Amino acid sequence: MSYQLLKGKRGIIFGALDENSIAWKTAERVHEEGGTFVLTNAPVALRMGQIDALAEKTGAKVIAADATNLYDLQELVEKSIEILGGKLDFVLHSIGMSVNVRKGRHYTDQKYDFTTKGWDVSAVSFHKLMQTLYQKEAMNAWGSIVGLTYMAAQRTFPDYNDMADNKAYLESIARSFGYFFGQKSQVRVNTISQSPTMTTAGKGVKGFDGFINYAEKMAPLGNASALDCANYTISLFSDLTKMVTMQNLFHDGGFSKVGVSQEVVDMFENH
Predict the structure, then answer these.
(1) Given CB 3.0 to 4.6 Å as the disulfide criterion, which of 17, 97, 186, 210 pairs with 141?
(2) Would you say the C-alpha torsion 135, 139, 140, 144 has a positive or negative sign?
(3) 95: which DSSP letter?
(4) In a domain, 120, yes or no
(5) Residue 173: domain span
């Protein structure tokens, strides 16, 4: 169902890889709600994914950009404003990658070149993006910037590895930059702490199926889907949430507030 919440609004969506990704679902929902946007991802991700199909479906242009490269980000922002016909109202940062996870390195045995690369892609890219938007005055007043995160920033999940540190850093950047962006031009910056979601990136985490099943049994509402997250993101892009900023917003069916659920207790009592 469409409410035309984003009619006339323009933005950039980072990280759509395939139809399982939250960024992909968000792009579809933005389109349904009347918004226009540019899709972007790293060149290697564009070759791996199916973003052209999404672009065709939503009438969006695709611009390759390495989110860790300031020149690429500057070009992306300038071209997006030109293509869309004005300054931006929303931006989604849906990027995360751990080389240590990909290479099977344990948290206690990291290769620090890998650590630095993952930190740059997953967290520092958020600062680089916002710094570019800020310095170019690319956002309209009351615009909204959203980054996707996970509760491993606050609690320990053994196999989430150095991505937990990256997410903690990402959330701190949102608070810090949210202050300056709000003061200067009333732009909002928030992060959404999403349930474990069966995306292509999520599947790369060891034991992810067990992760998802456990969260499903813990959360009173169950796990939030990628589409649920897209809908929540739409609400943050809309004018209905214009006084919400610098927040880390849990979107996890209540998981983050539950000590233990009866279902989990029952599983242990039955053993």
Answers:
(1) 186
(2) negative
(3) -
(4) yes
(5) 10-269
Between CA 136 and CA 26 the distance in angstroms is 25
Examine residue 240 and state whether it is found in any structural domain, yes or no. Answer: yes
- Interatomic CA distance for residues 251 and 129, integer angstroms: 24
| Other residues' Cβ atoms within 10 Å of the Cβ of residue 229 | 23
Domain count, the chain: 1
In a domain, 66, yes or no: yes
Spatial CA neighbour of 217 closest among 245, 181, 247, 254: 254
Distance, CA of 4 to CA of 34 (rounded, Å)? 5
Residue 123 lies in a domain: yes
Instruction: Measure CA 9 to chain center.
Output: 19
The CA R_g of the chain, rounded to the nearest whole Å, is 18
Please list, in sequence order, all residues whose beta carbon lies within 8 angstroms of the beta carbon of residue 87, skipping any fewer than 6 positions away. 10, 81, 137, 138, 139, 140, 143
pTM: 0.96
Q: Walk along the chain (271 residues) and give the pLDDT tens digit of each residue.
A: 899 999 999 999 999 999 999 999 999 999 999 999 999 999 998 988 899 999 999 999 999 999 999 999 999 999 999 999 999 999 999 999 999 999 999 999 999 999 999 999 999 999 999 999 999 999 999 999 999 999 999 999 998 999 999 999 999 999 999 999 999 999 999 999 999 998 776 666 667 788 899 999 999 999 999 999 999 999 999 999 999 999 999 999 999 999 999 999 998 986 6
For residue 34, give both structure tokens: 């009347």
Helix (H) or strand (E) holding 51: helix 51-58
